[in-house]
Amino acid sequence: MNIGITTSFIVGGLLLISIFTLNNQMLQNSANTTLDVQAKTYVSTITDILSNDISKIGFNVPQSANNASIFVQVRPDKFSFRGDLFNEGSTKVITWELTDKEYTKGSNPDDYQLVRKGPIKPGGNPSKRLIFPATHFDITYLDAEDDPIAHPQSNKDIIRRIQIALKCEATESPRMTNGSDNYSESFWKRKFIPNSLQFRSQ
Amino acid sequence: MSDYSDLLYLIAAMLVFSLLSMNVASTFRMSNTALVHSEIEYNAISVLQDEVEEIRWLENDAQEQIDSTIGGTYRYDSPITKTTTVDGNEIEYALKGNYEKVAFPDLGIDSYKITLTVASSFLPEEQRITQTVIKNFAN
What we know:
The structure holds 2 protein chains of 2 kinds.
Chain A: H1 3-55, H2 67-70, E1 71-75, E2 78-83, E3 92-102, E4 112-117, E5 129-134, E6 136-142, E7 161-169, E8 185-192
Antiparallel strand pairs in A: 1-2, 2-3, 3-4, 4-5, 6-7, 7-8
Chain B: H1 4-56, H2 61-68, E1 80-86, E2 89-102, E3 109-119, E4 129-138
Antiparallel strand pairs in B: 1-2, 2-3, 3-4
């Protein structure tokens, strides 16, 4: 083998390694972007539905009823309330809960099922369940002074504001070079002051 | 190698390849920056919406304080600092607002145009979030 061919092999080999590395990085970056957008889409979808639901808390519940009768259950990981989502003249119970069941449509072990139970259209099935993946869903109940309520379940009548923190992660991870999984994540936090909770007697 | 022209071809090929690599790296950086900025923006909008909710429920006695600081600073003596998490890091937002009295004659209300701005040191100036809300008080 003469020196020319040897040099060509070495240079060509180096070039080939560079091309493969670049290709690998492109694939990885593309996967990262896709998975990041996936996490953001989950957050965006959940927050759209959640914001719509919360704005209807207590809607069409008789004015004589207090806030305690609007809420069915209030826990840091679950809340259910009465409201007329579609202006049908009757209230339905809507429930949001981060369950301890794993979300199995992906490999992320931190994903749990965030379940929304309630109708999704006028006259819809009140037991209809929507399931989303979420890693963190925390509800804080606040009183009129904006202070957190320590035991909301026994103080439902003083709930005036609701703060929700949500974190979603991508269901899959691009395998990083160090071998560890790194799931893209998206976070959202918002405080709601629903109209119906402001004017009722305690 | 047969002659020096091969070497020149090789140098040209490597040059083209390195230019392509640089282009790709630059695209990566741009897409990553866009993703992080969009997340920060999304959270900045939440911060702004929180404040709009607060403004909606300002009670009537707040009007006196607004009047005494018109063009001034009720609630916004200094920027309100809010923190949220983006990609595992705490991001700080500075919320500012200012008031302008708006006249709606004969309606029996006092109205204020409140301009809110949310900024973050991680957002370019042109990506600051601004929203104007009208707050009415019965007079």
